[in-house]
Amino acid sequence: MPTDFYELLDVSRDADAATIKAAYRKLALKHHPDRNRDDPDAEDTFKRLNEAYAVLSDPEKRARYDRYGEADPGVGMGGAANGDIFDIFASVFGAGFATGGSRTGPTRGQPGEDLEARLTITLEQARAGASVPLSVERMTRCDRCDGDQTEPGKEGRTTCTTCGGVGQVRQQAQSLFGTVMTQRACPRCRGAGSVVTDPCTACSGRGRNLRKDTIEVTLPEGIDGGYRLRVPGEGNAGVDGGPDGDLYVYLDLAPHEHFVRDGDDLRYPLEIGPAQAALGSSFEVPTLDGPEVLEVPAGTQHGTEFRLRGKGMPRLRRSGHGDQIVTVHVSVPKRLSRKAREALQAYAEAVGEPIHEKETLLDRIKDVFQKRKRKREEEPDDKVEA
């Protein structure tokens, strides 16, 4: 049997959702255990088809499968099947086909609910792939009854009279194959095969209690804000022996005092003065590995970028690191001492750079009085001596 999910369903890798569903329907009908009772491999084949459809019909799982294959723990049924792979078949064909005729006995119980939480991480934590504590309120197994729902020291349970302890009830249904005997979870005991008669006093027979826990979330190296991480088994506890739910953590990246993240690169603004840009100088700049000395050559212009190779973030699920990009910002002083002003004026004269200074109000008043004085001195004296 092919191991690739696309080959298993006999579809191309660019097949759309409708094509995948049609191919699955055809093969699932062909290999359903009810039609192949003499074939010992029929149920395994049917389960494999369901697994392939469960992945390829889910856009997120399909994208991960296309990138990593089944080696990726986030792809495939795994613990996400929630106990009954025949439910996939039921979602396409209807509940009447949900079960195979050979399956009997109590079910595993009710799975715990998945939870969601937000977690703000630092750039350093993302770079190191650190384990970050996260406080979560969740339903956990009762410490007194250990999730059994019954009071310790008492019988606690009796066999369900509706299903006789089997956990399932049978019914007949009409299908494409004629009359088919199907099974579903017992409505009274919900598949457990027994009912609680002496409930636990700590959890009132629920088997779990609300509690605030601290979960250690391990970050992949190079993770960024905006990603969602799945932490298996850290959601609400299951009931009646059902599997625990998962915890989905949405990540936010906290602002950094020095750097701005740009993909795998880190950007750092370096402010220098006009003389440093013109003459060149050495600067100590911070990196996530400690300070580095950067040589800025003479004549460096505003906006010039320098790369510190490998000083950025690890590439997520790939080898290598990004770079740290240092961008030069030439900062012009707003105030100058008289000595500094005279030095700049001398520089401007030396390089032929004209400086047109704006006249102050006092300069304009002085100019007016000087012009009037010159005009009076130039006027002829009309007085005639007797």
Strand order of the largest sheet: 10-11-15-14
Structural class: alpha+beta
Distance between the termini: 138 Å
Q: How many β-strands, per DSSP? A: 15
- CATH top level of the largest domain is Mainly Beta
CATH architecture of the largest domain: Sandwich
Give the % helix.
Answer: 25-40%
| H/E series | HHHHHEHEEEEEEEEEEHEEEEHH
Written overview of the protein:
- It is a single chain.
- The protein is of the alpha+beta class.
- It has three domains: 1-103, Helix Hairpins, CATH 1.10.287; 108-147 and 207-254, Sandwich (HSP40/DNAj peptide-binding domain), CATH 2.60.260; 258-386, Urease metallochaperone UreE, N-terminal domain (HSP40/DNAj peptide-binding domain, Sandwich), CATH 2.60.260.20.
- It has helices at residues 5-9, 17-31, 42-56, 59-68, 86-93, 123-128, 274-279, 338-351, 361-378; strands spanning 115-121, 131-141, 157-159, 168-175, 178-185, 194-196, 208-218, 228-231, 247-253, 260-262, 265-272, 281-285, 292-296, 305-308, 324-330.
- It has a four-stranded mixed sheet. A three-stranded mixed sheet has the order 1-9-8. A two-stranded antiparallel ribbon has the order 2-7.
- Helix 2 runs antiparallel to helix 3 (42-56).
- The longest helix has 18 residues, at 361-378.
- Mean pLDDT is 83; it is low at 76-85 and 94-104.
